[in-house]
Amino acid sequence: TNSVLLNEVCGNWESYLASWPSVYVYRGQHHHNNGALNNNPFISLHSYVGNSPTEPDGFSIIGNKVDIISGKNYSLSFKLRKGISTPNLGPNYFKVWFIKNSELVNYAPYSTLSSHLMNLTANRQEVASVVPSQTTSGSFTTFDFCINANDDYDRVIFFGYHGVPYVYPPIMSWTDIDDISIVTLDAGDDVSESLCEPKTIGPDCTIPGASYQWSPTTGLDFPNSANPIASPTSTTTYTLTMNLPNGCSVSDQVVVSPELSITIPTGTNIYSLMNLIGTSNYTVSSYFSNVTNS
Hints:
mainly beta; 294 residues; eleven-stranded antiparallel beta sheet; single chain; four-stranded mixed beta sheet; elongated
């Protein structure tokens, strides 16, 4: 039940060849396989468009495994800048898609992945688009997007492309990307609890700077905290809303079911026990309909 699906340019990243000669996914400012590619804190993505139809628009892609669920809300954040080695404005578009992995590994023979993706209308959702005027070559710019998933997806991909068949002179450019995160909210597993032992509910991971609000507040000791203690007297569905510093809000639900039955040892005079406790005490007497003998 971790709120962060993906963080930083690390982990199980995959790279995809979109078309020749875009075979490069670079670490840092290095390109053409020069330099220590694995010792820099960000990734540079390569984009290329040639001067004839035989050198089509191509681009390198990075992606990662995710578990995107249809109908859930997600917050996407990343930093971009024009690659220092890029003499022009860079690619015309920088895109982020949720996509089904089948589209990355199965496409028509004799087709390039780039042309396949640009003609793809299903099994993907564009969740971010950035144009060159929104970035600079000197420093990183942070971009935030609030997303409602329109389907289930198992990959997120990042790429920049020019969107033209060819151009003269040819354009080769790089886009630097860093600090990638995709955040959703998991309020935790549904809970069945004893009335005498209320449990803490909420996510295992909290986001710095985020605020939390539970609804309804009945039965919660601190409804404005991420992890309150829940002690409802009847089965309750709680909705947790997390408001992120970037303005996005995500929510999830958890069901808390109090266990109302109690066990009294064999031989106990139940009626004497009820008289001792007091039958006017609704909270106690109402539970005796669920009494079992052990």
